[in-house]
Amino acid sequence: MTTPLFTRTDAALGEFSLRPVDPYGDAELLHRWVTHPKAAFWLMQDCDLAAVEKEFARISADPFHDAFLGLHNGTPAFLMERYDPAHRELVGIHAAEPGDVGMHFLSAPTDTPVHGFTLAVITTVMEMLFADPDARRVVVEPDARNTAVHALNKAVGFEVLRTVSLPSKDAYLSTCTRDQFLATRGDHR
């Protein structure tokens, strides 16, 4: 088992941690998650297992893109991707600044939702990203129709800049600085 790169304890829900995705060892699990109807905005609904392996192997080999498996109390529970918006996803759409880091996250589909879980996941993701002292601002581009994630983004400090047209969706280009995130946590350094 791979050692987590980042761990955070949530007072109500316990331990959240992230480790690098193993493109082959995690493929079956990730395939179940990304093809589930609740993961429609992940845009991998029609992928077979081989396509999921190929996509995560591509991400693993990309110097500007990483994927992390999130664990809740030691059990796989979410997925996070980090990318450099100067080189991936938003090239030509967003004028990336030094310290910008792009992010996607997906909570695993479940039939037994836990109140506050997804907020704890995005908080963990943001804390991991800002644990890097070079990270100054997180950039996201959620589907404009994904109202649930817009509420979560707002809760951790994201500000919608504008709607942008991407090849697979219309998206709300949004950013969150370290200070905006800390303010939502009650930290006004």
UniProtKB/TrEMBL annotation:
Pathway: Siderophore biosynthesis; mycobactin biosynthesis. One of its GO terms (molecular function) is N-acyltransferase activity. Residues 19-66 form the Acyltransferase MbtK/IucB-like conserved domain. SUPFAM superfamilies: Acyl-CoA N-acyltransferases (Nat) (SSF55729). It comes from the Bacteria. InterPro entries: Acyl_CoA_acyltransferase (IPR016181), Acyltransferase_MbtK/IucB-like (IPR019432). One of its GO terms (biological process) is siderophore biosynthetic process. Acyltransferase required for the direct transfer of medium- to long-chain fatty acyl moieties from a carrier protein (MbtL) on to the epsilon-amino group of lysine residue in the mycobactin core. This is Lysine N-acyltransferase MbtK. It comes from Streptomyces lydicamycinicus.
